[in-house]
Amino acid sequence: ITNGGKTTLAEKLKKMLPNCDIISQDDFFKPESEVETDERGFKLYDVLDALYMDEMVKTIHNWMKNPASSGVVTEGLQNTCDNLKNTDVHVLIVEGFLLYNYKPLNELWDRRYFLTLPYEECKRRRSTRVYQPADTPGYFDGHVWPMYLKYKNELEENASSVVYLDGTKSQEDLLSYVYSDIMEELQKLKE
């Protein structure tokens, strides 16, 4: 969901996990001139066609082929298990709002987390952000929220092994849960 805490959670995890890098879906938006406009004048940013998804998949595959040369910097690790700091295990966090609705990505995930927010909280958070281009009046209700519901419904019908996270919980609680889950998986890989 928009403004659910995806980027904040990813950045905090990166500081705590060994050999970790982040790829953000926001880095793959098409320029405004290439994004379609609907009959109400809304730019349709909350759809897959607003993104260079093939480029995103290519970037992820390139990282997977050679994560050690991906520019990952591991300094500043906090609270990481000492026996994982100098390991050959690499972690890639891919964060975005339409990750599980794009079939070429679905075979890549080891873990899937989906942050949710109730309508009012999401709208409140969205109203505190400044976007370029700026949200037009009615954009949240007319495009953003309906697209979130559409893609969430698709996800619930088609994707498995998704952990739903309550975005109203504290950042510390979310971080603690996801970090523990990832560390448990890393321990399994190491063994």
What would the keywords be for this entry?
191 residues, two-stranded parallel ribbon, 7 helices, ATP-binding, P-loop_NTPase
What does this structure look like?
With 191 residues, the chain is mainly alpha-helical. The chain has one domain: P-loop containing nucleotide triphosphate hydrolases (Rossmann fold), CATH 3.40.50.300. 42% of the residues lie in helices and 10% in strands. It has a two-stranded parallel sheet with strand order 1-2. Strands 3-4 form a two-stranded parallel ribbon. Helix 1 crosses helix 7. It is globular. It catalyses: beta-nicotinamide D-riboside + ATP = beta-nicotinamide D-ribonucleotide + ADP + H(+); beta-D-ribosylnicotinate + ATP = nicotinate beta-D-ribonucleotide + ADP + H(+).
Mean pLDDT across every amino acid position: 88
In DSSP terms (H or I, runs of 4 or more residues), the helix count works out at 7
Strand content: 5-15%
Please report the distance between the alpha carbons of the first and last residues: 35 Å
GO biological process, one term: pyridine nucleotide biosynthetic process
Pathway: Cofactor biosynthesis; NAD(+) biosynthesis
GO molecular function, one term: nicotinate riboside kinase activity
Catalytic activity: beta-nicotinamide D-riboside + ATP = beta-nicotinamide D-ribonucleotide + ADP + H(+); beta-D-ribosylnicotinate + ATP = nicotinate beta-D-ribonucleotide + ADP + H(+)
